[in-house]
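Example (one chain per record):
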Amino acid sequence: MTTKNDNLFKIFSQNENQIAELYSIYALTFPNQKRMWEGLSKAEIKHALILKVLDDKYGNENKLYSVIDEGYNILKYVSDFINKHIIEAQTKSITSQDAIATAMSLEQSMIEKKCFDIFSSKEEEIIAAFEKLNKETETHFKLLKPHLDL
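Predicted structure:
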């Protein structure tokens, strides 16, 4: 359970691991799309590792970065969304279209909620990491879009 006192790099990393878990469930649930879901899950695990490295290196160095006031609430919103859909994927019958729509909504909300903009820093490593995460999230959304039957 996360609290407002937790380091936001750590919370963000946990969110990425939760997304990986959700996508792994989808890979098991939809074997015809297993490759896509496993690829996305692995990418999310890499995101979590990037954030863990930032946490290990800068987590206690509050002078090297700042967090917008609503940063915790944004990450909590995303975490709650992910948890809801993990439970749903484990307990309800969902279609592959439901899974794709959920994943697209999740990736889109990460972009729209500006999850990657909650931190600001002059440290090049932090800036580069969040630019990479943002670009890859946009790529995930674009990868999912053609699979959604409109």
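Caption: Residues 8-143 form one domain.
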